[in-house]
Amino acid sequence: MSGKPKLYYFNARGRMESIRWLLAAAGVEFEECFLETKDDLTKLRKDGSLLFQQVPMVEIDGMKMVQSRAIANYIAMKYNLYGKDLKERALIDMYVEAVIDLNELLVTHPFQPADKKEQHFATIVDKATNRYFPVYEKVLKDHGQDFLVGNRFSRADVQLLETLLMAEECKPDILAKFPLLQSFKARISNIPTIKKFLQPGSQRKPPLQEKDVPKLMKIFH
Amino acid sequence: MSGKPRLTYCNGRGRMEPVRWLLAAAGVEFEEVFLETREQYEKLIKDGVLMFQQVPLVEIDGMKMVQTRAILSYIAGKYNLYGKDLKERALIDMYVEGITDLMQMILVFPFSPPEAKEKNLDSIKDRAINRYFPAFEKVLKHGQDFLVGNKFSWADVQLIEAILAVEEKIPAVLSGFPQLQAFKVRMSNMPTIKKFLQPGSPRKPPPDECYIETVLKIFKK
């Protein structure tokens, strides 16, 4: 037993990627066990390792944690990325929950049927540029600080950066009208732990390719 | 200003019902503003009151909180329903997230097309009986009254809410789960919850045609 957290998931972003980001941002080394076939998932279920028979699952501090939000909450608290009091936590939670909503749109895009893809893409761009990005741009503008909450690095910054980069993968100029988000992106990307995670060879996963979708679907059905 | 939390949502369960449950369980009185027309909703957006243009909205302690999970976490933290330490919080989060996945199925059910309703109801039954209820039945074998740390928490409130909601659809659903049956009786008899379960409380009835119509009218694209 190495003592390092161990992540059980597919070799893909999916619902585990935000957890990889958080651990990396906190400077925590982790191991990964990749599920490749349906049998791998079945075995974990039979072992009783998955509370609700689902992954992500993270072995950490003697627990087999499931549910990505529960896992992320635990990591954020443990490594002091969750604000200094209840009110800062409330702000962080609000910002993070909205980012997760946008993430859902981005993450489900490769799985959309061909005839729905274009409209789904339009929805992503509309929500990103009209609902979500303006809020964070304004937050940064109003306080003029480097970080979203409490003048201190938190999980809100990590999760926003993750989503900004994913949105740019979807549409490269999506941040064109958001100068503060652009400088936020540059600033947070330069934090040493994050900079390291953004380099080739890190445990960050690439975007899902169309050709990999059938293989993933097979594990579930 | 009364100082009481103020909830803004449609006059029905939806995404606000867990908030009503949690405040009630904590013995906290609250006020409600009901959205009845699209104009009301648009005015809220124009006034800049909805951070991401969405309800639920809960005005509490000087904050205009949005995002259901953020709201619930804040209430749980404030009223000591979130465990005594990080590990208890982790358990509570896992349990709450699992229950939320089940409740999500019930939430969207009224909005599914008529031809999909039977299949969706079967899915709810399958997930309740084969995935979620067995997990909590097993947890309760620790012989304590409450799910986590031998103390009343957010997880207990979420579970009793879910049990009652599933029973409304599938009356005999607890028949294989003696621990959950006892849990249901125990929780229903806690003074604050007992009060919430009585007629005249802020608890909302199951969604009916009128509620569905109102929601579709207000939030149509």
Structure description:
- The complex is a heterodimer of chains A (221) and B (221).
- By secondary structure, chain A is of the alpha+beta class.
- Chain A has 2 domains: 6-79 and 198-215, Glutaredoxin; 86-190, Glutathione S-transferase Yfyf (Class Pi), Chain A, domain 2 (Up-down Bundle), CATH 1.20.1050.10.
- Chain A contains 9 helices and 4 strands.
- In chain A, helix 1 packs parallel to helix 3.
- The longest helix of chain A has 27 residues, at 117-143.
- The two termini of chain A are 33 Å apart.
- Chain B folds into 2 domains: 6-79 and 197-219, Glutaredoxin (3-Layer(aba) Sandwich); 86-189, Up-down Bundle (Glutathione S-transferase Yfyf (Class Pi), Chain A, domain 2).
- In chain B, 36% of the residues are buried.
- Chain B has 9 helices and 4 strands, in the order βαβαββααααααα.
- The model of chain B has no long low-confidence stretch (mean pLDDT 96).
- Chain B has helices spanning 17-25, 38-46, 68-78, 86-108, 114-139, 154-169, 178-188, 191-196, 209-219, and strands at 6-10, 31-35, 57-60, 63-66.
- Chain B is globular.
- A 4-stranded mixed sheet of chain B has the order 2-1-3-4.
- In chain B, strand 3 and strand 4 form a beta hairpin.
- Chain B is α+β, with helices and mostly antiparallel strands.
- The longest helix of chain B has 26 residues, at 114-139.
- Chain A binds chain B through residues 51-53, 61, 63, 65-67, 69-70, 73-74, 77-78, 86-87, 89-90, 93-94, 96-98, 101, 131-132, 135, and chain B through 51-53, 61, 63, 65-70, 73-74, 77-78, 86-87, 89-90, 93-94, 96-98, 101, 131-132, 135.
- Chain B: Keywords: Transferase.
